[in-house]
Hints:
The protein has helices at residues 41-58, 94-102, 111-122, 183-187, 189-202, 207-213, 220-228, 232-256, 272-285, 290-293, 305-324, and strands at 6-12, 16-23, 28-35, 65-70, 73-75, 80-83, 106-110, 131-136, 140-146, 149-151, 260-264, 295-298. Helix 3 (111-122) crosses helix 11 (305-324) and helix 5 crosses helix 6. By secondary structure, it is an alpha/beta fold.
Amino acid sequence: MATEQLVIGVDIGGSKLAAGLVDDRLRIIKRLQRSMRGQDTAALLDTVAGAVAELVSTAPREVAAVGFGIPSLIDRRSAASLMAVNLPLKDVRFGALMSERLGLPVFVDNDGNLAALAEHRAGAGVGSDHMVLIGLGSGISSGLILGGELYRGAIGAGAELGHMVIDLNGPPCQGNCPNHGCFESLASGTALAREARAAAAAAPDTALGRALRDGRELDGPLVTELAYDGDRAARGVIELIGVRVGVAIANIVNIFNPQLVVVGGGVMGAGEMLLEPARAELARRALPPLCKLVRVEAAAFAHEAGMVGAAVLALDGLAAREVRL
């Protein structure tokens, strides 16, 4: 009997890294997280390599390959990071550098692409040949499954739906994006925190307002917790983000006519509190009958979709090598 392969899937986000030791049935054997906040390029690469090395050292048997999902425009021809909005990864030979440092086969793709791959292969998108993945985190990742295949664009840098403009006069986008009014600037976890601070200041008598007064960080988990507890200000923030997600999904539905839109990422801790207003806004804005034919569902792998997708990328890469041999 053949030994099951072990690979490592690494999902690098705008603020943290999630890595997992994964077998070829997509079972996660071990997980770890690392903060990526405030790191320059050299420190970031050290953090990534160190996380992988720790998983390799604790693996019960040999690790066959590593897959990386990074929030960057990727040149698939060279596995290079061309530009990242929220990380210092401009013109970095990421794949080559990681392969040299780790001594393992390395496969690299955009984090949104890999989350879409995971959901299509083994999650909420199983059976959907036309699917869109939106990941709501510090930024917004996205991926497209068109005709049953992952769509990457001409060189691998396509499907950056987070930088679709949904408000012509909206706020500047974050990080290295030169645009303003982007979906990411209005509906990411960063945008949620900004709206929460504004809502708390406007309603000091609410639980959200008291949290601001007490110096607590008004991030997604706290706002979501207060919303579930019934705080009107927190619920209003979640609903506002949901409406904006619905505006973006309406555009996506009109352009791609998907069967399914899968929404994941850390902000999706809000669940149906966010998805209900998103679906309602989609129904108001998208062309009929497209708006009636599409489903909008939560990601099955939740915030781990990118990590699982990175493992799928590594397994697929190994299989392709074996075929060529």
